[in-house]
Amino acid sequence: MNKIYFIIGSQDLYGDETLMQAQKDGNEMAEFLDLKIGARVEALPIVRNGEEALWCIEKANTDKECIGVICWMHTFSPAKMWIKALKILNKPMLHLHTQYNEKLPYDSIDMDFMNLNQSAHGDREFGFICTRLGIKREVVVGYYKNEEVIKELSRFTDVARAIAFSKKLKVAMFGNNMRDVAVTDGDRVESEIKYGWNVNYYGIGDLVKLIEGVSDSEVEAKMAEYEAKYTFATKNIDAVKEQAKYEVALEKFMAEKSIGAFTDTFEDLNGLSQLPGLSVQNIMARGIGFGPEGDYKTSALSAVLFEMAKGRNGATGFSEDYTYDLTFGQEVELAAHMLEVSPVFADNKPEIQVHPLGIGGKSDPARLVFDGIEGEGIAVCMIDMGNRFRLICAEISLIKAIKEMPNLPVARLMWKLKPDFKTGAKAWIYAGGAHHAVVSTALSVDDIRIFAKFTDTELIVIDNDTNIRELEQQLNILDKLS
After folding, report:
1. What's the rounded Cα separation, in Å, for the pair 329 and 251?
2. By CB neighbour count within 10 A (0-12 exposed, 13-18 middle, 19+ buried), where does 461 fall?
3. Which end of the chain is more exposed for a tag (fewer CB within 10 A), N or C?
4. How many CA atoms, within 13 angstroms, populate the side-chain half-sphere of residue 334?
5. φ/ψ bin of 80: left (φ > 0), alpha (ψ from -120 to 50), beta (otherwise)
6. How far apart are CA 250 and CA 328, in angstroms?
7. pLDDT (tens digit, 0 to 9) for every residue of the chain, 482 residues total?
């Protein structure tokens, strides 16, 4: 299981009795937090000098199970002794500004108590050196048993886990980027340097060979899965079986090569009789990342954010901006894709339907059709600015479909933009936001903020406080600094 190291700062000045008590308190705090924040929490030996600080950080760096560290100064801990250790830290760090004691013992407080319990003193010293060194960290303030503090620690753990996952993520591109499309393209080498995403091209023929080898029993097993999860609203069972073959082959391909996300493009699917639809939708529901038209950034990001959202209520997956209802004052967006929207967003039991598709030159593909869930959420996209990546995160309100759409045979979501339609759309476009995004009702802007911080990624947030003039100034400053 993933592990967080709890590092307790002090120094030799206070004597053995104080240090022993500090270690005991730190151990107790780690035991309390253990598993409550989504990971094992292990207290390391108390840090009294630079050599011990370096030992703790080296241990965290080299432990494959360790996804991050929590640092807390129980007493005053001179910050120069932390410099060498902090300079080599390569795991996400949370600085917990707390105390072992919640309340002051007003009747008995003395200098011994003050020397032991001086986080208000020691954490400021530690904070300074982190700032001086430019150390990216998340700061959480409050009593460590407080529910809000535990929630913030859990968020850090979720993001740290997603970053560890990201560093090992492999992405397969069946075909390349859709011809002449700009925003979905990107620097795959830089993606691996920055996020760990190993993105490689594979010929669709590699998948076709696996499809041809799928057995009848494997198809029947997949069909049984479909029947258990979805409503069959088609008599074209052969079309559904074809998608079952695609999914079985995709599962084999990804398992063999340890792939966690993939893309395809309808311009390069030679050897397939249908465009992948139902197969991709069903596989996305298990957390496999997907991006259409060769959009590897969305594919990888959807896998990473799905990992980040594990254990939370809500849905996370790919979607696409498609069209609007521009009724004045009631503007809403209809988001969909020609086939591939994950059933994790379904408000009703999805139906398997088979319909013609106007592009791709293939036979009628089977797909899942459903209306989307309601709730507060975010839409996140990543763009390549040429010399840096940028994340754009917009808060949205997903709503129930305003009216039935009986002639639209695709899965669809509807949402309202914040702070209002005009500002939200303008801001997204000014920021260069893509038409593909990862939508989540499980994650928040804070999750994306922490991820952006620890991956040193530029972040633009669109929410109820967004002001277009201020946003344009922010974008101008970022362009000049880059």
Report:
1. 46
2. buried
3. N
4. 17
5. alpha
6. 45
7. 899 999 999 999 988 999 999 999 999 999 999 999 999 999 999 999 999 999 999 999 999 999 999 999 999 999 999 999 999 999 999 999 999 999 999 999 999 999 999 999 999 999 999 999 999 999 999 999 999 999 999 999 999 999 999 999 999 999 888 889 999 999 999 999 999 999 999 999 999 999 999 999 999 999 999 999 999 999 999 999 999 999 999 999 999 999 999 999 888 888 899 999 999 999 999 999 999 999 999 999 999 999 999 999 999 999 999 999 999 999 999 999 988 999 999 999 999 999 998 776 789 999 999 999 999 999 999 999 999 999 999 999 999 999 999 999 999 999 999 999 999 999 999 999 999 999 999 999 999 999 999 999 999 999 999 999 999 999 999 999 98
Distance CA 247, CA 388 (A): 35
Q: Cβ of 228: how many Cβ atoms within 10 Å?
A: 7
Distance in angstroms (rounded) separating the CA atoms of residues 41 and 27: 10
Q: Which amino acid is at 476?
A: N
CB atoms inside a 10 Å sphere around CB 111: 7
Return d(Cα 383, Cα 300) in angstroms, integer.
Answer: 12
The Cα 161–Cα 287 span in angstroms is 14
Q: What's the pTM? A: 0.96
Sequence-separated (6 or more) residues with CB below 8 Å from residue 57:
69, 85, 86, 88, 89
Q: Which of 411, 443, 437 is nearest to 424 (CA)?
A: 437
* DSSP3 helix / strand / coil % (the chain, rounded to 5): 40, 25, 35
On whether the CB atoms of residues 339 and 192 are closer than 8 A, the answer is no
Single-letter amino acid code for the residue at 218: E
Within a 13 Å sphere around the CA of 458, how many CA atoms are in the beta-carbon half?
19
Q: Which residue has the tokens 């997903």?
A: 398
| DSSP class per residue in 350-415 | PEEEE---SSSS-PPPEEEE-BBP-EEEEEEEEEE-SSSEEEEEEEEEEE--SS--TT--S-EEEE
Query: What one-letter code names the amino acid at 440?
Result: S
